[in-house]
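Lecture 7, part B: from sequences to assemblies.

Below are the input chains for today's worked example.
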Amino acid sequence: MLVFYKITLFLKLIGREFKAQKLRMALTILAITWGTISITLLMAFSVGIERQMAKATAGFGKGIVVMWPGSTSIPYQGLPQGRRVVFRPEDRDLILERVAGIDQLSGEYLRWGIGIEYGKKTVNKLVSGVYPEFGEMRAHYPQQGGRFIDKVDFDVKRRVVFMGSKVAEELFGKEDPVGKMIMINNIPFTVIGVLIKKMQDSSYHGPDEDYVVIPASTFVMIFGDPYFDDIVYTLKPNVDSKAVEQDLFRVMGAKYRFDPKDSHTLWFWDLIEQAEMSRKVFLGINIFMWFIGGMTLVIAGVGVANIMYVAIRERTREIGTKMALGAQKRIIILQFMTEAMFIALVGGMIGIVASLAVTRIFWLIPMEGAMEFLGKPLVNWPVAISTVATLSVIGFLAGFFPARKAASINPVEALRYE
Amino acid sequence: MTNNGCLISMKDIKKVYKSGKVHVEALRGVSLDVGRGEFLAIIGPSGSGKSTLMNIMGCLDMPSSGSYDLDGHPVADMGIHQLASIRNRKIGFIFQSFNLLAYATTFENVELPLIFAGKPGAFRKQKVMECLSRVGLADWAEHKPTELSGGQMQRVAIARALANDPDIILADEPTGNLDSKSGSEIIDLFEELNRAGRSVVTITHDMTIAARCHRIIKIMDGVIEMESRNGHNKNVSISA
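Predicted structure of the full complex, as structure tokens:
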């Protein structure tokens, strides 16, 4: 009871002084709020960008390798250099059989500038012929109500088409394309699906939203292409992509009679390697962000320490008066400490709430172009809380030592302080 | 009780200030007794050591040597906690520059020593109003010090000094910042408090004020140079 009663007294004392020192309190709270916002937002955007980059990579296809045919650059077994290498449809089975590290594989046939009509509208787009596995490998996911090309489509050479979202928009506007008939190269096709809207950070024949996909078998039937334009494959787990490339040089070299060491015969674009690279780049960015965050924390800390220190020095006379009136040393120190903690907590909370608000506002703004890569900033709670804690401790220490010093000297010295 | 029942009993008090290599002897051996119900004036030129003596008397400062018994208890034996308690309950200190908390109201300023003493709210309220009535400022309870005149501010400080019913009022030039009329009113208050049984010790430069006290001590160069009682001077040998 007595303890409770002493606490209420004590709070009354503090409440009174809070009222009196509005400006100083506001400034200190602002310093802590600002520090918290800076660091929390810095880290929130860092998380947002990282996620968005991961999403963009996933939009193109996670862990895929694209292989193109080249030409020989050295003579081999009596054959001259400069011979073109080609990928034939049957190479798909050969590679799957001989290269153990490959999980899924799709050849890709390409034809640019093909006329696609719906009603009175005509557009000229790239048409790609692929295997059913292509959908999953290259993240060609259908919007609701549609589907990607499946094995039956491929086997019976159906005239079905999976459209890029931009192509669908150009031809159909707001109309639902699924189930509609369109003409590709004057041959009727049924639309079976439209690509979801997705972020894509790289491409090798234009963005996925801007072309249409049909079964490889149907493509060959219509256009008669004898060779794949490229091959896309994924690896089995824990397989070294360099070793798989060596295997491909060996297998294809044996079939098409080129030197497996002739690096000009096959070209690879290794997204696994690229993902590893961008992971490292982002690690670097992250370290940099942490460094800046740390620096900001130091600056905010110095600001808080400075205000607390000056505030207590300014109030040394007041401390002297209170001691002359019989205040115990511990009540004086406790008062300043409570004040510092209160300031830190209020400042920190405002900072965190403001950061949350800013991140939510960013979620609402439609982002385009480079801004799209800001993504959705996410408040990192451990960072936010440890920022507030650090600033609180700094404020606490900066308040504690001068308060203790002022309360430890003779009251007369504190009173004499100007 | 270790003495003759005096409230304050000081023997051979010395105070040396060290500032760098220079040692300044502010008090060079002062012995002084203040009885209960006494009204004492301390006079002397600036730098004579009278404020130092008063600060030691008020337990705001400690002597370098000598003994000081307050109400029979040696101050030198007291810890920081006990000293705070003594300042809170036994001594009412009044400063030349009032030292009111500018941000607190008159009421809150007077309430402060009661809060430090841990008195309950209802008691505090009653006591504060009683003290403010005593100094004639009951109507000014909710005003800030900045809204008061100098004389009023010093009366608030006196009300504050009275809050815990101290045995002794110590005033360091209480009228130094006041005009003569306000100053006179402050001394009127002191006389009234003294008649009610409290000991009052005041430093002053003003001889008309000193003349109204029972006893006058003149400090010069850190020693008591002269002591007079009821207007009859009597030379006091410098304590050795």
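Note for the exam: The mean pLDDT of chain B is 88. Keep this in mind when comparing with the next example.
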